[in-house]
């Protein structure tokens, strides 16, 4: 088994638990060159790097959650504030919520995002919002007049 295969198996099968120094954070944006802008549960943002062992194996999306090793302010030489230790999948998030490890701030944000998506879905079900092709003639089929003609 190669290095990449071992790494992917560890990512998919292991259930990571953050240590005292590690933090759960949300990915806000990709900045290029394996740098990601992340947000801590307290609202602070910083840049984090994706280590070489994860590159070309896993893709981190906006809005996904990660466990990072933050760098102390005294040790910082540049703008990078930490390194991504583990990328969390929905199963990991569900496990953290059941164990009570999940930060409450992220639950509130997720609930707000779900409400926005739900309200968008409710609005799209109206027939008034459907696209109308103006290049075609509108034909009104009057069902009551056709039924009367068939009876005669």
TrEMBL record:
PROSITE patterns referenced in this protein's UniProt entry, alphabetically: S1_IF1_TYPE (PS50832)
Protein keywords: Initiation factor, Protein biosynthesis, RNA-binding
Superkingdom in the source lineage: Eukaryota
Protein name: Nucleic acid-binding protein
Compositionally skewed regions (Polar residues) per UniProt: 122-134
PANTHER family to which the protein is assigned, alphabetical: RNA-BINDING PROTEIN EIF1AD-RELATED, TRANSLATION INITIATION FACTOR-RELATED
Family: Belongs to the EIF1AD family.
Sequence ranges of Basic and acidic residues compositional bias: 112-121
Domain S1-like: 13-70
GO cellular component: nucleus
Gene Ontology molecular function terms on file: RNA binding; translation initiation factor activity
Chain positions covered by the region annotation Disordered: 112-152
Record-linked InterPro entries: EIF1AD, NA-bd_OB-fold, RNA-binding_domain_S1_IF1, TIF_eIF-1A
């Amino acid at each position: 088994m190669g290095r990449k295969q071992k790494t992917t198996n560890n990512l998919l099968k292991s259930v990571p638990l953050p240590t005292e120094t590690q933090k759960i954070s949300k990915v806000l944006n990709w900045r290029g060159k394996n740098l990601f802008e992340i947000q801590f549960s307290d609202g602070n943002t910083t840049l984090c790097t994706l280590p070489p062992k994860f590159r070309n194996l896993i893709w981190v999306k906006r809005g996904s959650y990660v466990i990072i090793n933050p760098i102390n302010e005294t040790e910082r030489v540049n703008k990078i504030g930490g390194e991504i230790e583990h990328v969390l999948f929905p199963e990991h998030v569900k496990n953290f919520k059941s164990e009570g490890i999940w930060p409450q701030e992220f639950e509130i944000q997720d609930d707000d995002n779900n409400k926005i998506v739900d309200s968008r879905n409710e609005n799209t079900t109206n027939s008034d919002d459907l696209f109308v092709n103006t290049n075609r003639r509108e034909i009104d089929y009057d069902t009551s007049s056709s039924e009367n003609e068939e009876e005669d």
